[in-house]
Amino acid sequence: MILMRKTLKKLFPGTKDKTPDYIGKKAKVTKKVLPSEDGTISYRGSEWIAFCDENETFQEGEIVEIIDMDGIRMKIKRPTSSN
């Protein structure tokens, strides 16, 4: 299968690697996220477990940016300014 991956991808349309739609999206912190503890965020009307690898704390109500997903936990960071 590994050796045939490129060939199989050409045969089956719609199997292109693409960035998940949640990457770069904003979410609201609903339970404080600490450097060593998970918190929660609200994204698209659902609560998600959230964490950050950096030594940062995110308070309830703060807007964050989703940068990845690890299992059922969303990795977050401070949003980049678009100004």
The backbone outline, from C-alpha atoms, is elongated
The spatial strand order of the largest sheet comes to 1-2-3-5-4
Question: Uncertain runs with pLDDT below 50, 5 residues or more?
Answer: none
CATH topology group of the domain at 20-77: OB fold (Dihydrolipoamide Acetyltransferase, E2P)
Sketch the major β-sheet: 5 strands, mixed, barrel
**Rg calc:** 17 Å
User: Distance between the terminal alpha carbons, to the nearest Å?
Assistant: 46 Å
CATH superfamily of the domain at 20-77: Nucleic acid-binding proteins
Quick one: how many beta strands? 5
In DSSP terms, counting alpha (H) and pi (I) runs of 4 or more, how many helices?
Answer: 1
CATH architectural category of the domain at 20-77: Beta Barrel
**Helix/strand/pairing category:** mainly beta
What's the order of the H and E elements? HEEEEE
- Please, what is the average pLDDT? 87
Provide the β-strand percentage band: 35-45%
Topology:
Layout: H1 5-11, E1 26-31, E2 39-43, E3 46-51, E4 63-70, E5 73-77
Parallel strand pairs: 3-5
Antiparallel strand pairs: 1-2, 1-4, 2-3, 4-5
